[in-house]
Design a protein that fits this description.
It contains nine helices and ten strands. It is α/β, with parallel strands linked by helices. Helices cover 33% and strands 23% of the residues. Strand 5 (118-123), helix 6 and strand 6 form a beta-alpha-beta unit. The chain has one domain: Purple Acid Phosphatase, chain A, domain 2 (4-Layer Sandwich).
Amino acid sequence: MKFAVITDVHGNAGALEAVLAEIDAAGDVSHIYCLGDMIAIGHETDEVLGILFDRNDVSMLTGNHDEAVLALAAGREYPRSHLHVLAHHQWIADNMDAKFIGKLEQLPRVIREEFSGHRVLFTHYHMENRKTAMPISEDPFSQIVEPNLGNAEKMFSGHDESLICFGHHHPQHFFHNDRTIYLNPGALGCNDKPEAPYAIIEAKEEGFEVEIKSAAYDNKKFLEAYDKLQVPERDFILRIFHGGQANASLKKR
């Protein structure tokens, strides 16, 4: 059987729709695992959550941005490590349809599955065992490390799954040793070009076969809407998370 892995949609509905269209067109993908940070950074919160929650073939878990926004929406303590995007997160929380708050609150941080006798871990990023129940205000997710096999092995040294899928760090990670595949297909909704990465995994008796793919889409209106909507921290977001594409587009006119 085949399943898809997507992560870090970050409020980008156009990118998500492009990926889902390719997955649906393939016709042989049984399930989709979405590894957190569905919202924030991008401004299409309700659109993204509506798409994901309306499908019956998607399993989701929460990431740090989802949980930081939920903390504000529920009046819980906000993580000091995210203060640089507090105004942005507050804007997301204030403008998000309240019906999604309860749904997001019910999502897990970790999903474990087994396919063809091989175990899989899905998580937004590594967490130490003692931190798995900590609130987002206490920064339960481990510090980001450079993407290489050695760091992946060290970070997930307490795990023996055949496949470990994660997100959080936006560059693609695809490493393996003779026991484990470490996979992060890359941030679906945050890139320096209008492409949305994702992965298709086929489970076989001998293990997993991974294909990392990318869906092209038109992001012009999405980028222009940051100014139209007066999204807080938009200059920082467009520069850091979208490679300054909006400014480049303006210069071409």
